[in-house]
């Protein structure tokens, strides 16, 4: 075996030894020529040509060791020693091979390049910090994965999770009462959490509602769901905003919970109320909180009861009964803040002063709201609001000019 060093030009010959075993002869027969250069390493084999380049080059043939000088000189020495192992040499470029015992190459820190030690040290420090972190159940990052691997408990199913944390209700089947990006985000988030917690992204199953329009569009959320239920198309009051339909589907598909997302029926307090009566979970605020703050008419009355300034509207001056602990808005008080037809609405608009906004109490997302600048256009715009959110109470409010929208999320 002859080894040429291109930098020095001095040929190096294989040291002769009477104690060389057949194993070494096998290694020698396999490797015909090894050429070293400062940048590339080429290995020629009897049967295959291996070409590779990289910073780390580890060659394991039992006790075959490859070492280089600490000096910048390119002169190289290769020493071969006897071993009884007959394993085939393994070659790796760019990373290290896990080995046991004496097969470890350059194990001592003084033999490992200082540059590589400096590069690896930050990674080791990061691993040590990760081990000290407590498990997180919120985010699916790479750091979160390590936290779960290092946690001191193991949970395989939602049933075990509920038992572990002292819960009373198991949820492993959810109805998504929404479509589009809302449904996609919900399923992605829950499946990511399920994989991190249970190592099974399908631990929670999803049932979705699908309209003919969604099927025709080949919506992404349909592909992600485990089951889907066809529902009527058209306006959302036929499907995603139809509270009775949602409750009926939830009962027929035997889900334990319903997620409504945003828009559609998500702000309708009737949905959590009816689900609660059927023993199902609404993944959102309770109906009492939605009645108090989710409804535009009720929330305006609550604000006036708390002496918070409000814009002039059809229910200005109305206050609810408050006993220091609970606030109650009766149906009669609620209706006094609404207008039932275009004639009543026009009377309220004249009292408030144009321009005004005609709003549906159950509207949202740009639906059920119109700006009215004059008496002449009031009846037509009022009917548009009625058509967009059928059955919703309607009220009239003064237009806020030059206003900026500031929104605060409340957790009830």
From TrEMBL:
Cofactor: biotin
InterPro entries given in the database record: ACCA (IPR049076), ATP-grasp (IPR011761), ATP_grasp_subdomain_1 (IPR013815), BC-like_N (IPR005481), Biotin_carboxylation_dom (IPR011764), CPAse_ATP-bd (IPR005479), PreATP-grasp_dom_sf (IPR016185)
Gene: ACAC_1
GO biological process, one term: fatty acid biosynthetic process
Region named Disordered: 1-26, 67-88
Name the record gives this protein: Acetyl-CoA carboxylase
Alphabetic keyword roster: ATP-binding, Biotin, Ligase, Nucleotide-binding
Start-end of Basic and acidic residues biased regions: 1-13
Bias (Low complexity) ranges: 16-25, 67-82
Domain Biotin carboxylation: 170-412
